[in-house]
Amino acid sequence: MSKTIKKSFYDKLTFIKFIEAHKRAADGKYQKREVLKFEMDLETNITTLIYKIKNKTYHMGKYREFYVYEPKKRLIKSLPYIDRVVHQWYVEEFIKPFFIPRFIKDTYACIDDRGAHKAVERMQHYLRLMKRKYDSYYVLKCDIRKYFYSINKDILFNILKKKISDKELLLFTRLLIYDNDDSDTGIPIGNYTSQYFANIYLNELDHFVKDKLKIKYYIRYMDDFVLLLKTKEEAKEYMNIIIKFLEEKLKLKLNNKSKYYKSNMGVDFCGYRIYETHRLLRKRSKNKIKKLIKKWNKFYDIDTLNYKSVLLRWNSWRGHAMHANTYNLRKKYLNKVKFKNYLEIE
């Protein structure tokens, strides 16, 4: 594999590639007005879009902003549909094929065939290995303070620049990072590019920890990462080294929840409390489903329940819960549902 992305920008700037990008962007959203509108004159819209990119007159549209409150309050920025097609094209044609193969094996967010459950399985595997080797050991658990809002755009661009020798692609990358936003820091939560840019940004930390510090048991899921270490002294030392690296190289800070502690407390990671012998659901997940069941039962009593929506939410929670030791817990919550016969019963 080439060390840098060489002249390929115009080779990928084709009608077929953008049709493919549109299909991915529209997946599950074909009934939405902006998707239908784009499809009504699909050939013209894509041809015009390619023309604008070639002639450097393309600029991203205005963001639609809204807040989500799970698991915490976050500002989400959503681009017009045509820009989401562009982001699909850029990520699939340039970022995924070139950057993801350069990630370490133990980073799991937004990567095909990995994900949160694979991260949890690997974490438990590493806990068991440490238990066999040392019996008692230490966990260094960290995450980044306001990560997406803190990413420095100049640093991000320079990281990408090291790997992109195609001048046209580099210009377009600059446009995606800086266009439509005057601030020096922060990338929008909600952009398809943002999750990959965020992963590339902390790939610098991954290789520092693995290649320079030679830490064997290290796992990252986006801005949440864990090191397993032999002693308290090691944990303290490496925490200080990582703090310095993040501040000096990436202009990031750890949040106040970052800490090191004895392994018998388990590891709070990707929605579970993980131990060598078992996994538990986090309290937040249990509280969330209890509130939902209470709400569903109220709607059931007044005959306004959306059964299809409930089934989707229940199966989603149940699928998550099944990756922990929760058989009795799942039965307990199912029994609280007044219409439980409608839900899938194990």
Looking at this protein, list some descriptive labels.
346 residues, alpha+beta, four-stranded antiparallel beta sheet, 9 strands
Description:
It contains 14 helices and nine strands. The protein has helices at 9-12, 15-26, 33-40, 42-54, 81-99, 116-134, 147-150, 153-161, 167-178, 192-212, 232-250, 283-301, 307-321, 327-336, and strands at 64-68, 74-78, 138-143, 218-221, 224-229, 259-262, 267-269, 272-274, 279-281. The longest helix is centred in the middle third of the chain and has 21 residues, at 192-212. The chain is flat. The termini are far apart.
Topology:
Elements: H1 9-12, H2 15-26, H3 33-40, H4 42-54, E1 64-68, E2 74-78, H5 81-99, H6 116-134, E3 138-143, H7 147-150, H8 153-161, H9 167-178, H10 192-212, E4 218-221, E5 224-229, H11 232-250, E6 259-262, E7 267-269, E8 272-274, E9 279-281, H12 283-301, H13 307-321, H14 327-336
Antiparallel strand pairs: 1-2, 3-5, 3-6, 4-5, 7-8, 8-9
Helix pairs in contact: 2-5, 5-10, 8-9, 10-11
